[in-house]
Specification:
The N terminus is likely disordered. The chain has a single domain, classed as Metallo-beta-lactamase, Chain A (4-Layer Sandwich), CATH 3.60.15. The longest helix is centred in the middle third of the chain and has 20 residues. It is of the alpha/beta class.
């Protein structure tokens, strides 16, 4: 059973039911938001708007009322504003749900500008698919919007445990873009599954067991069959492991049963057919596990196994050299104790 979550919001006067756009009036400038002080973070004041409206982040409407930005396949750095993850928003009769806020507050503001180019309806929800910086560092741009922040039941603890390391390590890469970043915990923690009501459309948000991380969420827009998978599914960009490789394999099997028409992966093409889009991630994880199990059985040391595991996948993924050894090291430790 899904728990229904429906804030009390007025409906607009006129609605295009195909696209979900408000026909009564349209705004094309970024909404100017006031400064907001966060009482649970003494001394922190967030500038939720800018003196000049930022350029809207480019989004593609992949289904009626469903918009996706395709992130660069790259590492987070100042030159790309941390904009490396796929992000989305869904427009309903009552308001908007944002799926992941990007890798910086600057990117978050550009998401907000893109939304305001489509609709002036309120932002009801900001959903974080998991804890990684490229998906959550933009949250502060929405702090004054009145939105409910939605995350996995484990997200708050995961962010708290990594707060110091995330802020310090990314300062080196992102410089002054880190000045406004605040790790905001969800105000709605999903235990298993919830239903979010945008008015004319229902979003099903599901919390998964430990896989890519221990705090992975997916969101399914029932109206269009669009599934936002976060980093449970990768395309082109080498998968990254920060949870359980065996758990991830099991979650992919369960994920494939969801009734979706298309998927938005965490990285890679903005829209891909479902469930075929799972297969590259599954193939990579299977290769990693097979190679590491063989290494463990033969007594190959971690230092050697981590350099050769999943080598057959190297040509199929961008950023393979940046992530595969790290993935193999984490998976080796798990598989040693099977």
């Amino acid at each position: 059973m899904c728990r229904r979550f429906d804030p009390d919001r007025p409906e607009p006067a006129r609605l295009d039911l195909k696209t979900g756009r408000d026909l009564t009036r349209r705004r094309f400038a970024c909404l100017a938001l006031p400064l907001v002080a966060l009482p649970w973070l003494p001394g922190v004041v967030l500038a939720a708007g800018a003196e000049e409206a930022p350029d809207p982040l480019p989004f593609e409407e992949i289904a009626p009322g469903v918009f996706v930005h395709r992130g660069a396949i790259d590492l987070m750095r100042a030159s790309n504003e941390g904009a490396i993850a796929n992000l989305g928003f869904v427009v309903g009769a009552k308001g908007v749900a944002v799926i992941d806020s990007g890798g910086s507050v600057a990117e978050g503001r550009r998401i907000l500008a893109a939304i305001r180019a489509v609709t002036d309806r309120p932002i009801l929800y900001v959903l974080n698919t998991h804890m990684h910086p490229d998906h959550v560092f933009g949250n502060a741009a929405f702090a004054a919007s009145g939105a409910v922040f939605v995350g996995h039941r484990n997200l708050a603890a995961a962010l708290d445990a990594r707060r110091a390391s995330y802020l310090a390590s990314n300062r080196e890469l992102m410089g002054a873009l880190m000045d406004e970043v605040v790790l905001l915990a969800p105000t709605l923690a999903v235990e298993r599954e919830v239903s979010l009501d945008l008015g004319d459309r229902r979003l099903i948000v599901k919390a998964w067991p430990t896989a890519h991380t221990n705090n992975d969420l997916t969101l399914l827009d029932e109206a269009t069959g669009t599934l936002f998978c976060g980093d449970l599914v990768f395309l082109d960009h080498c998968p990254t492991l920060d949870g359980s490789v065996l758990g991830w394999q099991k979650v992919l099997d369960a994920l494939a049963a969801l009734p979706a028409a298309r998927v938005v992966p965490g990285h890679g093409p903005a829209s891909a057919p479902w469930p075929d889009a799972i297969e590259p991630t599954r193939r990579y994880l299977d290769a990693l596990v097979t190679d590491l199990r063989k290494a463990v059985a033969e007594g190959v040391p971690l230092s050697e196994a981590a350099q050769t595991a999943a080598a057959s996948e190297a040509a199929r993924w961008q950023l393979f050299e940046d992530y595969n050894t790290r993935n193999a090291t984490a998976a080796f430790a798990e598989l040693e104790w099977e």
